Amino acid sequence: MGLSRLIATLGTSRLHVLLVEATGAFAARVATERAVLARGWVLALSPADADVLLVCGEPSDVEAAAVSAVWDSMPGPRVREVISDPTALPTVLDSVVEQLSDTDRHRRDARQRSAIPAAGSAMDHGDMDHGDMDHGDMDHGDMDHGDMDHGDMDHGDMDH
Question: In whole angstroms, what is the distance from residue 86 CA to residue 30 CA?
C-alpha cells in the first residue's frame, strides 16, 4: 500500500458529512443522520467542514441548484451521493468510503475544479486604468479617534 493510499484510508475513519434534506425527505434524512452517527462520523456544520455531501431525497430543480452551490463550495477531497431509499444506506455509505479512498478520483476532481475560473476572475474592465486615481490631498495617517467616547450611548429604545 502506497503512502497516498494509506493516508486516504486513515482519512476516512472519521468523516464529516453535510446532510441536505430535499422537500418531503424527512424520513430519509433522519435515517441517514442515524447511520452516519452510528459509524462514528461527524455531522458537518458547513460545506467548508465537510468531506461528504449526502442529499436526502430527490431535490427539485430549485433545490438542485442550491445543492450544486453547496457542492461547489466544498473543498476536496469530497464525495456527493443522493439517498433516495434509506434501505440502501449501508451500500451508499460504504461507497462513500471507497470513493474518498480513490486518490486518482480526487486528482481528477482537483484538475477539473482548477479549470473553472474563479468568480470574478473573468471580469472585463474594458480600458479602465486605476493607476491615475486621484484621492486629492487626503491623508489618513493623522486621523485621531482618541477623543471619541461611545460609553454613554443607550441603544435600549432601538426597534428591531
Answer: 9
